[in-house]
Amino acid sequence: MSCDSVDRREVSQTVNDNSNGNGVFTSSRPFLVSQRLQLSPNTEHIPDNYDDLQLEFSPSVFRSLERYLPPNLLSVSRDVKVQYIREILARYLPEGERFQKLRRYRQQIISRYQPLHRELYTLNPGKFFAPSFIKAVSGNTEESLRSIISEPSPGIYTFEMLQPSFCELLLSEVENFEKWVNETKIKIMHPNSMTSYGAVLDDFGLETMLDKLMEDFICPISRVFFPEVGGFTLDSHHGFVVHYGKDWAVDLGLHVDDSEVTLNVCLGNQFSGGEQYFGGIRCDKHMNTRIEPEETLDYSQVPGKAVLYHGHHRHGARATTAGHRINLILWCRSSVFREMKEYQKKNSSWCEWCQHEKKERQLQSVSATKLELFKMEESRV
Ligand SMILES: O=C(O)CCC(=O)C(=O)O
Ligand SMILES: [Fe+2]
């Protein structure tokens, strides 16, 4: 089942790059603030005109909200502003209405788009996955999974997953879809507010296949490695591809995903650079805290190979310096976990900063108690 559609908040929450304390993770992309409006308008700014666009809210709403955009977004293209403002406005639509809208949007695309490789639309493990991956998941034990999984840094799991022939087919399907979008001039939604270069696979018919992939192949892994965020109850996803290179995005700033667990698989092609970097797991409250040296990891993308991580494991992508890199991303969510509001708790068991603060508090309290005891001893002597 997929109810990602109800929740089109697939906006990565971005971390202010300057606040990580080491200055390594800078990015040339403009999306370096959380997706919010400013408290007061920039009265000097002259907004764009939105009259020619068919939008679900009046053009005047876009014009007036534009003045409230974060300063670094005031000068980006109108398309990017539209996307940003639309996603903020969508939060105010009743949930049912949002769901209907997304269903209609998908229906419109699916009824018009002719898939190139129909065999991609039904999950076929033998054709899609590496035999070692199928064997490990069918084993369904921590031991069988660990036999194919590496953990280059705590909480980051990598493994061979997709067959080269599947990657090629999916790349060709995405290319075909994007060509069709260009030809028909249909307006499609970007994967999220940080990523304008890419396509949402769920929007053109791959939702059911990806749902099955998550349920049958990712859940068994996240059940073992991510129980703290409901890894055994993943029940919806947001699936998309992202493009990097000269004609696409260059890099991606440090951020967390709107997911409990994220699967990221490189599909190809030939490229240099584009490493994914990581900087520790943080809850919303501690997103801007510094990265500890032991939390950093640079992971080089290899076609067919997957990386699986906690959605709040901060990460970004280094510049793809040559060629074209395309990755398949699956943001996996658990409605049970979200319902429990576990991630809004004061102290998240999985946030490394919350745990660090908790330890500090315990140490302080032990020292204070010791000091008091010492004072009492002193006064008795
Ligand atoms: O560049 C990548 O592979 C990571 C993309 C990513 O983190 C995202 O789209 O949320
Ligand atoms: Fe991400």
Radius of gyration: 23 Å
Structural class: alpha+beta
Give the count of structural domains: 1
> Helical content, roughly?
25-40%
Query: How can the largest sheet be summarized?
Result: 8 strands, antiparallel
Name the CATH homologous superfamily. Answer: q2cbj1_9rhob like domain
Give the DSSP E fraction (strand runs of 2 or more residues): 15-25%
Ligand inventory reads: 2-oxoglutaric acid, fe (ii) ion
Average pLDDT over all residues: 87
Note the overall shape.
globular
What is the CATH architecture descriptor?
Sandwich
What is the name of the CATH class?
Mainly Beta
The CATH topology annotation reads as Jelly Rolls
* Element pattern in H and E: EHHHHHHEEHEHEEEEEEEEEHH
> In angstroms, what separates the terminal alpha carbons?
72 Å
Number of helices: 10
Strands, count? 13
Region (Disordered): 1-23
InterPro entries: IPNS-like_FE2OG_OXY, Oxoglu/Fe-dep_dioxygenase_dom, Pro_4_hyd_alph
Protein name: Fe2OG dioxygenase domain-containing protein
Biased composition (Basic and acidic residues): 1-11
Structure write-up:
The chain is an alpha+beta fold and 381 residues long. The chain has one domain: Sandwich (Jelly Rolls), CATH 2.60.120. Helices cover 34% and strands 20% of the residues. The protein has helices spanning 59-66, 78-90, 95-112, 125-128, 131-139, 142-146, 164-184, 207-225, 335-339, 352-380; strands spanning 13-14, 150-153, 156-160, 198-200, 236-245, 252-256, 261-268, 271-273, 276-281, 296-299, 305-310, 313-317, 320-333. Strands 2, 3, 4, 5, 7, 8, 11 and 13 form an eight-stranded antiparallel sheet that branches. The protein has a five-stranded antiparallel sheet with strand order 1-6-12-9-10, with no helix packed on it. It starts with 12 loop residues before the first strand and ends with a helix. Mean pLDDT is 87; it is low at 1-33. The structure holds 2-oxoglutaric acid (AKG) and fe (ii) ion. Fe (ii) ion binds at residues 12, 255, 257, 315. Keywords: Dioxygenase, Iron, Metal-binding, Oxidoreductase, Signal, Vitamin C. Residues 12-23 have a biased composition (Polar residues). Residues 1-11 have a biased composition (Basic and acidic residues).
